[in-house]
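Researcher: We are triaging several targets before committing to wet-lab work. For this one, the compound of interest is NAP. I'm pasting the protein sequence and the ligand SMILES. What I need is the predicted three-dimensional arrangement of the protein with the ligand bound, expressed as structure tokens, so it can go straight into our comparison scripts without reformatting.
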Amino acid sequence: MRKIIYYVATSADGYIARPDGDVSWLERPRPKGNYGMAAFFRSVDTVLLGRRTYEVARSFGHESHPGKKNYVFSRARRRSRAPGVEFVGGDVGDFARRLRGSKGKNVWLLGGGALAASFLDAGQLDEFIIHVVPVLIGEGIPLIQPRHRRMPLKLLSSHAYPDGVVRLHYSVPPPEPDENTR
Ligand SMILES: NC(=O)c1ccc[n+]([C@@H]2O[C@H](COP(=O)([O-])OP(=O)(O)OC[C@H]3O[C@@H](n4cnc5c(N)ncnc54)[C@H](OP(=O)(O)O)[C@@H]3O)[C@@H](O)[C@H]2O)c1
């Protein structure tokens, strides 16, 4: 079955971007293998982006991930002119069930924290692959949009890179009734 995986980098204090969306603190010399990014990229055929993440990526000239199907989530009706990019709205649970019902590789939920929270709260996020970057940025956009949660995760693996980045790979157990709010 296709998995939906939130593959992301955070600061050591749990932020994916500064409050204004700045991610320049992520720029650093990449070790050989770029933290396994190429292998992960090959394992997915679909990328899910929140509208704010899409706008930041677009401002850098990365309108889409070539060769992948790119879905951008927005509650407003929008249309993309970029090939391979489709704006979607509606219920994320219905969207995820449709995606899982069609054949394909795993799905990269690129972010950000608001979209990841929507999938998590709908019981539609299977795994987290979090790269913790050894830097504190003090304030910013959190890994997952805040709300009261108690969501135990299962650690599948961890890996410390020589430059101090740590990759944490978790699976999300299937939701129990009221698991999110207990
Ligand atoms: N460090 C990393 O690895 C990493 C990864 C990804 C992103 N980022 C950064 O994270 C920042 C953005 O994160 P964010 O949490 O603020 O925003 P986001 O999740 O990228 O986008 C939020 C927007 O997505 C849409 N959306 C969210 N949930 C939805 C739902 N259930 N149904 C329909 N649309 C939905 C809404 O768009 P509308 O307002 O149009 O309705 C919402 O305003 C950017 O700065 C980006 O660069 C960092």
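Researcher: Any quick observations?
Model: Residues 52 and 112 are 8 Å apart (CA to CA).
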